[in-house]
Amino acid sequence: MILLQVKQNGFFPADLLFLASTNADGVCYIETANLDGETNLKIRKALKKTWDYLTPEKASEFKGEIQCEQPNNSLYTFTGNLLIQKQTLPLPKPDSFANYLSVFSLGCSLRNTEYIVGVVIFTGQETKLNSILLLLSNSFLLFFFQEDDVDDEFQEDDIDLDDEFQEEDIDGEFQEDDVDEEFMEDDISNEFQEDDLDALLLEDKLE
Q: In the UniProt record, which is one GO cellular component term (predicted)?
C-alpha cells in the first residue's frame, strides 16, 4: 500500500482513502471545483480506527486491506470496506450534500486543514476524474460524428436539388426549342400558301 501526506491547499494526486487529519475530530475540508465547479467546501471524515496514523512513524505501521467497488465516474459515492486489525469496517456513506465520505478524488484540493494522511486506492485512468473525462470525450466524439452525418445528408439533398434544377432547365430549353420550331413551320406554311395564291391569280389573268 502507498500512503501519502497532502498539505493545506495541495491537490490530491490520486483517489485516496482518508486515514488521519491534523484536526482533532478526524475531519478535513476539501474543494471540488476542478471536478464539479462547486466552490463550497465539503467535509471528509476518517474512520476513528485510523486517526492515529498521522505521523510518519505511525503511518509506516499501517497494515490493512481495502475492499471496494470497481472504478467509476460517480463523484459523490463510494462503496467499500477497510479490513484492519482483524476487523471489517464499512466506509461511511455521504449525506445529501456529499459530505462525510472517507475518500478523496484526484484533482480535489485540501482546505482549512494543516495536512492529511491517506492511502492510494486508484491512480491514472481508473480515477474518478479520468473516468469522467473519458466519458465526456466519448460523448463529444459521438456528437461530432452525428454532425458529420447530418452535413452529409444536407450535401446529398443539395446535390439532388441541383440535379432537379438542371433537369428542369434542360426541359425548359427543349420546350423553348419545340415552340420555336412550331413558329418556324407556321411561317414556312404561310409563305407557301401566299406563293400558291399568287400563282393562281397569274393563271386567271392569263386566261
A: plasma membrane
Burial 154-172 (b: 16+ CB within 10 A, else e): eeeeeeeeeeeeeeeeeee
Residue with cell 386567271: 204
Of 32, 62, 59, 26, nearest in space to 44 by CA:
26
The pLDDT, as a whole number, for residue 19 is 97
Cβ atoms 17, 103 nearer than 8 A:
yes
Grid cell at residue 138: 466519448
DSSP H helices, 43-90, are: 56-59
Question: Which residue, 137, 136, 125, 138, is CA-closest to 15?
Answer: 125
Other residues' Cβ atoms within 10 Å of the Cβ of residue 55? 11
pLDDT per position as a tens digit, 48-67:
999 999 999 999 999 999 99
Specify the 3-state DSSP secondary structure of 206: helix
Q: Are strands 109-111 and 27-31 parallel, antiparallel or unpaired?
A: antiparallel
Q: Tens digits of per-residue pLDDT, 102-121?
A: 999 999 999 999 999 999 99
For the question of whether the overall pTM of this predicted structure is more than 0.85, the answer is no
Please report the pLDDT score of residue 188 as a whole number: 45
- What values do phi and psi take at 151, rounded to 5? -60, -40
Conformational region of residue 98, where left means phi above 0, alpha means psi within -120 to 50, and beta covers everything else: left
